[in-house]
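(Fold this chain)
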Amino acid sequence: MPDRVTLYRAPTTEADADELGEWLAQRVDAEVAIEDRMLDDIGDEELAREFAEARVVSPYERETGNTMTGILRYEERALESPERAGGVIYDGLAVQDALRKRLDCPLDHLHVVLLDRVVGTWGDHDGRWHKRVNVLGQPAVVSVPGLYEAPAKPESYYKAKQQHALLSGDAPPREVLENEVEGDFLVADDPRTTDALKGAVLAAYHYLETGEAFCEDSDCRLYNAHRQPELLAAQLQGSPFCEAHAARYG
């Protein structure tokens, strides 16, 4: 049972760690502290190598890693200047392992790392990588860009993408589609980011506290949404919790 939670900022993202920490502290029986970006303190050549080794090289290949000199230099720059990083998916469990080695992680002190990288986990059931918003455990990893990229967008988005491809022979930039398509989904630097992340941060605590990963009720903040409309419904609309979890966190 964690009686302390440390939440680490991701300052190049829209996520407000102070607001998330205050919201969490009102709902859990634990002391909540906020720290600066973890990768600023632990970033070095060895961590850059571990990130390079955690790179997903193909959506359909389980093996990860590219440690060519140029990739290592990229990862070193990304640690120093995270605003320059992007377009890469990392094995979330490997990233979690890399952070765990550099932290003191007793079960009574949960670390929740807001991360400015996209992470994924391998699906044995379908033989492909899946982007994730969070990787539960100790430490817990919460991917801010994963919030925009992991849950599938509305069908209208993919239909518009297909139509553009048929007409032009190439898919348009994501930003073009986001501006053209009507439909409610989160985009990069969305002002709703902090509110939408509250369930992911609470899930990290809930998992360590109860051993339960997610809630089956699609209207609960602890629901693991696979589509953007479901995510917004669970995090931003209606009652924040199902009846069972409202009794614990409401």
Summary: Residues 4-151+186-249 form a domain with the Collagenase (Catalytic Domain) fold (CATH 3.40.390.10). The mean pLDDT is 90.
